[in-house]
Amino acid sequence: MSDGANTQPIKNKQSANLMNKVRGLSDRAIAWIFISPTILILLAINIFPLIWTVYLSFTNYRVNRPKKDVEFIGLRNYERILSDADIWITMQATAHFLIWTIILQVMIGFTLAYLINKKFKGNDLWTTIIVLPMMLSPAVVGNFWTFLYQPQIGLFNYVVGFVSGADPSSFSMIGDVALAPWAIVIVDTWMWTPFVMLICLAGLRSIPDSIYEAAECDRASKWRQFWTITVPMVLPFLMLAVLFRGIENFKMFDLVVQLTGGGPGSTTELTSINLKREAFEKWRTGYASAYAVILFVSIFGIASIYVKALNKVKSR
Amino acid sequence: MQSNFMKSVIGIGAIAAATLGPSAAQAEDLTLCWAAWDPANALVELSKDFEAQSGHNMSFEFVPWPNFADRMLNELNSGGKLCDLMIGDSQWIGGSAENGHYIKMNDFFDKEGIDMADFIPATVTGYAEWPKGTPNYWALPAFGDVVGWTYRKDWFERPELQAEFKEKHGRALDAPKTLEELQQIAEFFQDRDIDGKKVYGASIYTERGSEGITMGVTNALYNYGFQYENPEKPYELEGYVNSDGAVAGLEFYKSLYDCCVPPGSSDWYMSENIDAYKSGQVAMQMNFAFIWPGVESDANVGGGKSGYFPNPAGPGGHFAQLGGQGISVVAYSEKQEAALEYIKWFAQPAVQKKWWESGGYSALRAVVEDPGFASSQPYAQTFLDSMAIVKDFWAEPAYASLLLPMQSRIHNYVVAGQGTAKEALDGLVKDWDEVFEDEGIK
Fold first, then answer.
1. How far apart are CA A245 and CA A308, in angstroms?
2. Testing the interface with A: which of B74, B98, B217, B267 to mutate, by most A Cβ within 10 A?
């Protein structure tokens, strides 16, 4: 009791000193106090692993060989990656997937947004139905599309067979070298077109009616209104959607693994799948780190150029 | 008086503790890690006897085959303590021994009188030894397994099919003795109408993601003359991996894939083959022997409708791909004593006999060499015949680095149809040479 009574004034004095010290700090110092925990966390979980990955990329380190000496091997991992024909094949597969998914998603997404933007009965219901695929887990989508693509019992093959007159079991979307790259494009387009549609819809709804009314007064045709008002004003939104989808599809993994596992052969082995195999199946940690650095630099460089272009379009 | 009473209580307590033994006093929660498949369920039932006898509690961590290696090798490489006992794949033995994931069991075997000579030699070499051919043991053979074939005996026995086949090939429609005969039978059934349903020749391993197509194609490669290395000069691959015989074997597997499998079977492994067979899509199925008890008890294809035969011979020999696993104690476990108790219990002949009866494939010679074994199940003789001709994939510490290029090269040729068999195997030699160079072996 007596101890408590004695320590209370000391505590009060200490807290008063602290308050005085805080009051004496500049705004900049207080700002640093507030953001420093976040910066520390970012350094610990983002920046440090990045620097560590760059370091590992110059070594022959293997995480599954703790007893083996780690040697510094300079640029050897980079040389091997850039001169490996198989890696360029996976890059091609990734480029095919990336380009076609973006083209199809932009075209279909924008068309859907344009249609949904019109006022009609059941508009909300259709919007909800259209966005359903993007709410599903990619692993689930990949799994059930393997059933849809089944030559003997798959709905996709049945519909194609019904429309074209071909025998449904005469073709295999995920087992045929020519069709498999398209099989993954179709599924990704089915799943992510609604995302592009929603962004385009936001763009379309941000255009004030007064602009169209002014165009009507100037007797501009619908076609002219579309190309001179709608497209330029939606373009920044569209470019944003392309950026998001581009980054996402560059690192596409789960959906394709579930669908094809990278096959047949290596036809649909995208860079992220290939990287995972190097890192966590072959356990070539140093090599995989170099691979990851190359991919990071590529995507960071492309994204930076793209963001500059996007800013230019927005400022017009 | 009170003091004497206390002394008596303490004395009785001490005697009781000593009598009940250390297991009762130190009951542990043991976790056994394995693949999620039928034998694992049988082991759960079998282990109840161990729990009752030892007082230890058993938990199980089962992972589906396609993710088994990924999940468990991650666990071992990170020094995880999840698993006390690991029934790891046979090819992991080299890496797990050299990287210190498993404890060495020689002293334990000597102390408990467990003799490796009591087990099927191929399973000791395949599941327990590292380096191969040396008496250094890291596991107890736990589950003998091998690739074999299942066929629709009820279809084969139909008189009209027998007559048609005999007219075409001049021999009875029966379980094939050679790979060439197997392909003839597969072609015979391909696209045939049976009971109003279109059926196909055979389901074979084509899976790309883990180890599937490798586990399948080796059954053709071995029998056409493929060898992993020069028997006289280890790690010399040129002329052995890509020998003329190996090329012919790979071409055979591709021709079997091209002619005689169900549509869409470009990425099939154990479970897809089982499904195709049980649903009556195929006349023959390639699969590990572990599925045979399930086939026999199946309502559609069991009860005498199915027959079993070992992988047929080829022009270059008669082999079958080894499957199966040994049981090891994980070096990172803090309950190694209790884990070793489990292995001691599991090695007992009576337990091994019960293991076989409940659907597990015992590797203990006392069980499989019992006069009544061959007739104990319709597939028992085929199991014995198959285990006599086994050959396994590399079990080097770099096994995963060796497996992945094989998966890729073989799938590229067989399923994707890219390049030639010679190019695929030449590419494989280049990939494997690179791995061995990385390892500092070559």
1. 17
2. B267
